[in-house]
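Moderator note: this is an archived Q&A kept for reference. The question asked for a predicted structure of one protein chain; the sequence and the answer are reproduced below.
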Amino acid sequence: MTESLYPLRIAAAPISWGVCEVPGWGHVLDARTVLSEMAALGLSATELGPPGYLPRDPDQLRRLLDTFGLTAVGGFLALVLHRDRQDAIAEAENTAALLSATGAEVLVLAAATGLGGYDTRPRLDDAEWRTLVDTASAIRDIAAVHGLRTVLHPHVGTHVESEPEVERFLADSDLDLCLDTGHLLIGGTDPVRLARRHAERIGHIHLKDVRGALVDQVRAGDMEYSEAVRRGLYVPLGEGDVDIAALVRGMQAAGYRGWYVLEQDAALRPTDSARQPSRDTERSLRHLADIALAAAGI
């Protein structure tokens, strides 16, 4: 299936099968099950998921990925960047070394609050913001030594979530962004418009689609983010309110040749299997194939 998506570089992520770094998020499927589902869909690349989900030993990790014909793209790392700077840098150093050893390309960094989860977040003062920006830059330099690019991921429940925060980060930092279509829209940023304004600052893309009605409830404070996820906030590409086709067309026209990572965040119940997440991912792949065929005039 994925051959028809050329020249798009498509990767998977364990979060589509409910694997999340938040304690108590939901049922966590074992790694071999998730990786085998990715391979069965014809995918050949993946982000690594939360630290510790896959082996931390590089040799073991490479062997596991090789078993399923997968290569590593990068990894998501949510760190408290506005305080405890040395702790954040040390954790980033460890993660960057592992990513580099597995041939990955990108470290996807998020500005965690330190509270756990993504349902609440305090405000930062100017000094804390400056520390956040400086720590992100230091991590970027460390990752570069390991041959990795670093991108900052605007994310619900972190300190770079809303449109003013995204624009402030772009102005204050020279790090590129991970453009996550779902998290940006939930935070109040039109991802297509952001891509048009700042195409040269997009270093990595997470493709999500979301239900607008649930987005409105999260924005209004009427529903916690985690509850919205459990109620089906994320849907297969083309079935929600993000204009995925416009985003992909625009980024390709702007010269973007990085990864498009499929991420329909899920929270599984103990009785859930991999079946539904895999079906959702397959529908997302078909939507991307349709976009690629339409662009080719087929």
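Archived answer notes: Strands lie at 9-11, 45-47, 71-79, 106-111, 149-152, 176-180, 202-207, 209-210, 234-235, 259-262.
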